[in-house]
Amino acid sequence: MKAFILDGYRKKAVLRLGEMPEPKVRDRDVLVAIRAAALNPLDAKIRDGEFKLILPNRFPLILGHDLAGVVVRTGSSVQGFKPGDEVFARPRDGRIGAFAGLIAMDEADVALKPRSLSWEEAASIPLVGLTAWQVLVERANLKQGQKVLIHAGSGGVGSFAIQLAKYLGASVATTTSTANVDMLKSLGADVVIDYTKADFSELLSGYDVVFNSLDQATLEKSLKVLKPGGRLFSISGPPDVAFAKSIGAHWFLRQVMRLLSRGIRSKARRRGIDYSFVFMHADGKQLKKISALLESGAIRPVVDRVFPFAALNEAMDYLETGRARGKVVIAMD
């Protein structure tokens, strides 16, 4: 099958278009012919070697964490899907590979594609949808009337999280650049702060939850807007000990993560705030719930650009400019 291949960790490496064997189908697997796949900053970080300690990979490696496609074959133990089913998924770590013609995934990671969405729209959802769900619903237990600050609202995760938080009944503030202010208001944000003109930490206070995806400086300033008992979640680090334990990290790596997060944990503790690092996990059951919200129109996909499969490296370059509004997607021929 055709695939874009990474031969080793290297910053800004160009992915090689070549042939790879068809994936082996295990008993609980569905084999899916991919119709569209989405790009994520995580793909670039893995390519650059930033996660090699916590996400070890074998080469040659096919990247790609988001996809939509058609089931072409199922393993002997699969009960939830059949050939011909239209599905979407975020395959679990260790089994990624959406930048290819075919992928085999555990059926537990897969959900039926929302019928109202195009292939490209459906492919744009799984990783960002699950990330937002696991922060706001699973971890924060966000409730009606609470106040949440979602940083980088125009990005893939942010644009989904704003809509999910509004669906949950929260009051939503977000940060963005001037060009995206109107778009984020249209997604439901109650307060949109243009970071080129104002400092969010000087304008906001008394918030229950902050959802951070930006740098360390933004993370630390976010403490100022939270009330005592508030919760600070970050998907951009630093990783903490709880995360290390969740992935079964060995003792040395646990100590490294303890040291990396010590500063923000100490600052948060002094303010009576709980800090957590979140690294999303594949979950087909949660994706099914997200699908229902998409079908109902409560949440809509935000797709910035669609590239042809052959232009994957061009799409990666565009994603890394940081200017994309929502998701960048590739469509298969």
TrEMBL record:
InterPro entries: ADH-like_N (IPR013154), ER (IPR020843), GroES-like_sf (IPR011032), NAD(P)-bd_dom_sf (IPR036291), Quin_OxRdtase/zeta-crystal_CS (IPR002364), YIM1/Zinc_Alcohol_DH_Fams (IPR050700). Gene3D superfamilies: Medium-chain alcohol dehydrogenases, catalytic domain, NAD(P)-binding Rossmann-like Domain. SUPFAM superfamilies: GroES-like, NAD(P)-binding Rossmann-fold domains. The keyword Oxidoreductase applies. Residues 13-330 form the Enoyl reductase (ER) domain. GO terms for molecular function: oxidoreductase activity; zinc ion binding. Keywords: Oxidoreductase. This is NADPH:quinone reductase. It holds the Pfam family ADH_N.
